[in-house]
Amino acid sequence: KVWQAGMRLVKEVYQASSQFPKEETYGITSQLRRAAVSIPSNIAEGKGRTSKKEFLQFISIANGSCYEVITLIKLSEDLGYLPKEQTQVLLSLCAEIIAMLTGLTHSIR
């Protein structure tokens, strides 16, 4: 479920960032998209590992990427690239993912 939520966030981030200014193509747009893609990618890679310790490490990386996405979303709003309503949708998805990652971490431990 957390992987699915991560994939949903990636789609939302791509849609939202498609409206960013062209001069941000290699700046915030790229960084935001890469950080978002990192979330489900690390969950998947961690699941494919053979030990719980490795899985937990990849979950931790996914969690860090989620906080990076939050920072970039807030920056994008501050710069006028995202409307408040869209920002709230994205931040809500991030909060949901962080809560799920926390729960997954506790269940693995």
Strand content: under 5%
Oligomer: single chain
Low-confidence stretches: none
Instruction: List the secondary-structure elements in sequence, H or E.
Output: HHHH
What gyration radius follows from the Cα positions, in whole Å?
14 Å
Shape: elongated
Structural class: mainly alpha
Summed over residues and divided by their number, the pLDDT gives a mean of 97
Q: Kindly report how far apart the N and C termini lie.
A: 18 Å
Taking the sheet with the most strands, its summary is: none
Estimate the helix proportion, in percent: over 70%
Number of strands: 0
Number of helices: 4
Keywords for this entry:
single chain, 109 residues, mainly alpha, 4 helices, elongated
